[in-house]
Amino acid sequence: MSDITTNLTELVYTTSTSLDIELTSNIQSDIGWFSLSFTFMITYVSFAASSNNMVANRGHLARAGVIGVLLAILAAFGTCAVGIDFVNIVGVMPFLVLGVGVDTMFVVMSEWAEHYDETSVEDQMGATLEKCGGSISIASLTDIIAFLIGVTSQFISIRNFCAYTAVALFFSFLWDLTFFMGCLAVHGQRVRARRCCMTCLVVPDRFRKWKSPERREEDESLCEKVPQLLLKISMSDAAVLTVKIVIILLFTGYVGASVWGIYNLQQGLVLNNLVNDQSYFRLFEDWNREYYKTVLPISLVFQDLDFSKDRDVNAMYEVFDTFQTDSHITNNSLICWYEEFKKSMLFNDTTHEVFVTNLKDFMFYAPSLSNDVTFTSDGSDILASRCHFITGDIPDSTDQGNLMLHVRELAAESDLNVFPYSAPFIYFEQYVMVLPSTLQTMGIAVACMFVITILFMPHPIMVTLVTLNMFSILAGILGFLYYWDLSLSSITMIHLIMSVGFSVDFSVHVCHGFISSESETRNQKARDAIRVAAAPILNGGITSLLGICMLVGSESYIFRSFFKIMVLVIIFGLAHSMLLLPVILSLVGPKLGQADEKTTDFIKSVPPTIQNGHSKMPSEDKNTYYLNHAYDN
């Protein structure tokens, strides 16, 4: 058909498989963006972790972290291929998992830099995981559980996507705890031995600037120092009151805009949005909407009818009358094989056997009706038959969903075994189910996030703040779908499920940093939380943005909508965790509680020779000891 051209007319066409073919073609043509996005991500990660100190340089460590995430993605594809069908939406999963994995990597590296006072790599590793293990576990588990809940969705595409993503996130978390931690230990041994990051040879004494870091500032790159500096200035004593007022006013406006967006948010999905602008299917749909009414054929499928009995035939005509008089159906639009058969000379309903025999002869002369009757395998009986009606003009997706429910109710009023069907019903199902399904799935996910937060962060104020933060971010994402010109559909529903887990991630790191701070005032504890969490959160967010930035030019609606929602998730997550949450914590955050004081006193009471389960060398012998024994077994 695509090869037919004339100088007088322009031909457009579609088939029952056109949408699937075009959608698959779009996804496959955009797969190349993944390699380009991966290149951007690994370049930024390498830059953000690098420094001019060839001993402390963490570039290789950062690249190892990205490789670990890629291994997790491959493991997920291999595992899910055993019994879970690949659907087109799974194409966005690698971008998602890369962002989560890189964020975890930055958090671990940031915490690692806090513990250079430890006398061994083992002690430093133990102290690092003791401090950040809880936050990265919460972040990973909330993401995994959010997608596992998505597996319960009524939509197959959503179930399969969530299954692939949950498995990938699980492997990413597993790789972080094994592969990346192993690379971190090797990195720590190399650094303490003053070995060059490129050659792994001991650096000569004349390169005094290339040395093992002794405090956090000596291990940080420019990308880690700048956000801390800016936030410290904004949270200084001189500016803190003004900054707090401005932030609260901004977020008040944000909440108002979100509520307005939610109020105006539309439901449904325009099918031609799923294909690219050059697609023949899109042109067909555009012309069809512009020049023709949106009318639908409704088929009534009958089973277990005996057409030789007046009772069954009269009941069938009662169903016809019900549909003919309905306001949604065009008058006199009935198209039925039975009506045509009655007009023929072959019609005979004296017995059921004669009726069936003559009907088969009639179908030989009326091939256009042959698809409306299905006979049993031996041809002795009618298995099912169908008749058709035409609806009125129904262009709105919400009205289309309501129409589907309405004709089902009309059919259910009859005692006959009859059900209505139309090919577009497969799309109308999501118009009806997407809102309750989205609310149900997100509600369960939020409840699970709440339980996980209680288990890993057992402080009522912190649990409350993380939960409120999550609701605020989710409200913003839902509301700003309206401003992004997106509607609530099965496609955006997937992204909303994804955002439930992400809305917790950034907040958890800041709250954990606040609780871990040993400062006495709330303002100082908030500054400490920013100092520890700002750089990894911001760099993780920037890395995720770089990973999806190439999708802005994608021809696929799935990829473009994923890009738009991910931008909202990242920006709102960063804004809440780095601006709003520190302000709230500085006002109502918990002070050091009795339980925390006991824990602190207990840790301080442990002799230094056995803290973290390892012996400690005297500080004056530390450098010499690691220079000689860093790579000992």
Question: Can you lay out the helices and strands and say which pair or pack?
Answer:
Elements: H1 18-30, H2 32-48, H3 59-80, H4 93-112, H5 121-150, H6 156-192, H7 222-234, H8 240-264, H9 280-291, E1 297-303, H10 310-324, E2 335-336, H11 337-343, H12 352-365, E3 373-375, E4 382-390, H13 397-412, E5 417-421, H14 425-456, H15 460-483, H16 490-516, H17 522-548, H18 557-588, H19 594-605, H20 622-629
Antiparallel strand pairs: 1-4, 1-5, 2-4, 3-4
Characterize the structure shown.
By secondary structure, the protein is mainly α. It folds into two domains: 30-274 and 435-585 and 618-628, Multidrug efflux transporter AcrB transmembrane domain (Multidrug efflux transporter AcrB transmembrane fold, Up-down Bundle); 297-423, no CATH class. 64% of the residues lie in helices and 4% in strands. It has helices spanning 18-30, 32-48, 59-80, 93-112, 121-150, 156-192, 222-234, 240-264, 280-291, 310-324, 337-343, 352-365, 397-412, 425-456, 460-483, 490-516, 522-548, 557-588, 594-605, 622-629; strands at 297-303, 335-336, 373-375, 382-390, 417-421. Strands 1, 2, 3, 4 and 5 form a five-stranded antiparallel sheet that branches. Helix 5 packs antiparallel against helix 6 (156-192) and helix 15 (460-483) packs antiparallel against helix 16 (490-516). It is elongated, with a radius of gyration of 32 Å. The N and C termini lie far apart (70 Å). Mean pLDDT is 81; it is low at 593-633.
